[in-house]
């Protein structure tokens, strides 16, 4: 099993993993979910310690990692930004080496992606990217798990993303390519995903047969799509651009009219929090609430699969 090779490995960039490893992690998340729902005693990480650092506010990330770690038998310790101010009170290099003396793994939710990679360079324990301005790989693992549960396969599926080409989009492109699904992103030309992240996704797609499309038409993006994905138009740190972005993205709302272009059996996903009446209407959100909140729930199980593998 290729997952055995991941013991002690960082989980920072999806492209650091093979398609087989990503698919096995998705299946492990589903397996752990079933065991948890059946009240099976997991204890896969009994006696282990997970440190979680947050430079950004969090609901799903904190709860899913902290409770998930405890369900695996591990102890979870939260450190907030004001407690250590990563890279300010003490260098990132030294902070990484100190935490490595106490913990068995660490998750970082911060702004600069480079900070996570620098931390990992000096840490002697596995480092998990719990969100940076560039990427959100753990979110995409939960998304893939939700899609697999819904459709039973990735073969023949088309994903579509509508809105701002942000960190979630960057990771979703790579996630889709790794599982061999097609993906079409509909976004304004000045708000496309990161160019280098697109190139990485395209390189993966050449091996898996996935087709990647970046266009400015949301209607074309969702045409015949099985999964329609949305996120906020204004992410944390972009609050000053709120009014400007609201005007630019007003034609990129996920609503019933847009969804009519998708496959008749499509689902709508949203990584939350949702600004209803902006990137998605309340009506469309509620029609897909079952999938969206299952997606949120799956953050925990997907991350349990990651932790159980790299901390083993």
Q: How many angstroms separate the termini? A: 14 Å
Describe the biggest sheet?
5 strands, parallel
Class by SSE composition? alpha/beta
What is the count of DSSP helices, taking H or I runs of 4+ residues?
13
| Residue runs with pLDDT of under 50 for 5 or more positions | none
CATH superfamily (homologous) name of the largest domain = Aspartate/ornithine carbamoyltransferase
Spatial arrangement of strands, main beta sheet:
7-6-5-8-9
Shape: globular
Quick one: how many beta strands? Answer: 9
Roughly how many Å is the radius of gyration? 19 Å
Task: State the helicity in percent bands.
Answer: 40-55%
Number of discrete domains: 2
SSE sequence, one letter per element:
HEHEHHEHEHEHEHEHEHHEHH
Strand residues, percent: 5-15%
The CATH architecture classification of the largest domain is: 3-Layer(aba) Sandwich
By CATH, the topology of the largest domain is Rossmann fold
CATH level-1 class of the largest domain: Alpha Beta
Mean pLDDT over the residues: 97
